[in-house]
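Let us practice reading a record.
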Amino acid sequence: MTEFDRRQFLGLGAAATAAGLTTGCASGSGASVVPDLVVVNGNVLTQDDDNPTAEAFAIRDERFVAVGSNADVRNLASANTTVIDAAGATVVPGFIDAHSHPSGAGLNELRNVNTNLGSIARIQAALRERAADTPPGEWIVGFMYDDTKQEEGRPLNREDLDAVSTEHPIVVGHRGGHTGVYNSRAFEVSGITRETSDPFGGHFYRDENGEFTGKVAERARGYFQVPSGSTPEERARGVGVICRKMNASGLTSVHQAGTSRADYVAYQDARAAGDLTLRMNLMARGGTFPALHSAGIRTGFGDEWLRIGPVKYAADGSASERTMAMSTPYAGRPDDYGILTMTQDEIHEVVEEAHRGGWQVAIHANGDVTIDMVLNAYERMQREYPRDDTRHRLEHCSLVNPDLLRRIADGGYIPAPFYTYAHYHGEKWIEYGEEKMEWMFAHGSFVEYGIPVAPASDHSPGPYEPLMALQSMVTRKDFSGRVWGPSQRVTLDQALKICTTHGAYASHEEGVKGSITAGKLGDFVILAESPYDVDPDRIKEIAIVRTVVGGRTVYEA
């Protein structure tokens, strides 16, 4: 892309600068560019340190071309320019979610049974309804189940699902993505018996008599061959569904953590159909990486809508499902240190191949043990095959300590901890304890150490709403008002930076997005209230008025 394309020239020169209007410029052109869209009368929080606030801005050809006062920006408009009067509303850059699973979430909404219902009885009723319309022998799949949020005060089990059907294999997946609950028929058709032992990196949960409870974790889930059965058309429609939902929350860019061949096709099909309204940074799964690597493709290939991101692997369990690998045990479970899903040698091997191939690497590492293992591999590569500015990533990076923080800062690595978890999953943190929670989802420590911590929902495991994320990071309060890890609170200024500029930095895109700056992509959100003017405990209640991507409105209340 040429400098003229990136920095649409406005023939305002020194006079514009003197007037406080920032513009994108290219040498050698003197023509004025008429904007397609201007926004005026806004409380614009640009997240640009050189020009932190403004009243108005202009967009041309999907990019901001001027940011400044109402008078100066209005002067650029013509009769053909669309004018949005923000009427004093707060305007921020488009929010970025740097770790999510949107394609799978959208497809689930189309095909499977949403079990985010708050009670085992309602889950059973929803599954029975699906079973009535499903031929015997075919799988029934539930999603978005949460074991700690049921009215009955206990988790779902195998007997609960057997009461739904013994003719259909059933799985209800935890929203955390690392465990599921299966009925007896599912165990039977998969050939799993009492004598089946746990694989490395997996676990079949049993009761005191050695009988399966139905809960299965991590790699043990691979014993169940659950067919996806989706068509390319459904997968593309699923992308459209989740784009609309995420746009309604103010998201304009998302990093998909783990992208299959079918996902790549679905995003392209959705774009061709005009349904792709999120800018996607697509992390390659380990299984798709070899083909991309052998074709000479590496991180950064693509454009502003579909871009190849890091290669992504997973090395341990889940924070929300209490399976992440730690150096100290879970509260009340003195023999349970969590689950590793990769060995140190395996981590070294995949990191070396990707690093030497010019790729950014992203590894799911929740617990302190796992983070140490991943840092070992990253540091080894920088000693033996140094590269500048790799920004290798630590996905989730949930439990840290001062030594890990120092190593992350020294290496320039990017942690992507859950940004809504402190608030949304509060009832789970008792299994870690207050001492650990002072070092979990450590946004405050990352900021203190100068680490550009990335914003991450991990949806479906966590809610993706950026305003809930701001509230969670600022207050660290759960739904009941209990504070978890108050030392990790950040200021609202810092939280906004995390959800915008830091999200762009995590994908090497800080030059094109993350702030309302002339020359950058024209992505922004209008809020009904300023987060600075409301009680911090109700930031998540602020309504989204409008979401705009590249100058085009993709959501309007």
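A brief commentary: Residues 188 and 312 are 33 Å apart (CA to CA).
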